[in-house]
């Protein structure tokens, strides 16, 4: 068994202001995505300025934060937030939904694309390889917050979490960091380095994220207020990943079939 590192969720306490590690992880994710985007900007569109890129990153970040928070409220704990509406503002305590954040990114990208003469999937293919930076940072934030831990286990790397009772558990936040952060970044970055048909990068992102998340949910404890939703083992996270995987497969097939059809027409 490994010892859980007792990290204070508050990174800096100024008395009148507390800065939480969870919030700092979002800054790390957004800042890292922006830096990587600057490296890909010329290949994406050499006519774009750094200011336009910064605008894109800003609006996508707003989509992540607002969509992630509202998605958690709607998908995972609506009754509780109706009872205490002000809790919606307490983002530093956790409670963000990836799938809600994805919806927020989609809406932000649609809006930004229309204003800047870029198609939705052109932008999504550009954004997708940047997302794992934020996902990985967010999972580290979950780990520091001692939340979203896994099921009780006797594996050598199990940990006793401060909020998880006396028994050792899977550090599922670190599994998600490794898969959704590191592995997904490597896959997408390598895949997107060569020219791909429009929609292919977005499709691969949806497939890989959906599969990774679906797998980890088997060892992650579901949200207490929801529990298992079907068959005694299916969680909300898994239910939301199924359409992602199917949609990603559809995008990949469509992208390559369209490329083949266009090549034949020429």
UniProtKB/TrEMBL annotation:
The chain crosses the membrane at residues 19-36, 56-76, 96-113, 120-140, 174-191, 198-216, 228-256. GO terms for molecular function: phosphatidylglycerol-prolipoprotein diacylglyceryl transferase activity. Keywords: Cell membrane, Lipoprotein, Membrane, Transferase, Transmembrane, Transmembrane helix. It is a multi-pass membrane protein. HAMAP family: Lgt. It is an enzyme of class 2 (transferase). Belongs to the Lgt family. This is Phosphatidylglycerol--prolipoprotein diacylglyceryl transferase. Its EC number is 2.5.1.145. It is found in: Cell membrane. A 1,2-diacyl-sn-glycero-3-phospho-(1'-sn-glycerol) binds at residue 139. GO terms for cellular component: plasma membrane. Catalyzes the transfer of the diacylglyceryl group from phosphatidylglycerol to the sulfhydryl group of the N-terminal cysteine of a prolipoprotein, the first step in the formation of mature lipoproteins. Pathway: Protein modification; lipoprotein biosynthesis (diacylglyceryl transfer). It comes from the Bacteria. It holds the Pfam family LGT. InterPro entries: Lgt. One of its GO terms (biological process) is lipoprotein biosynthetic process.
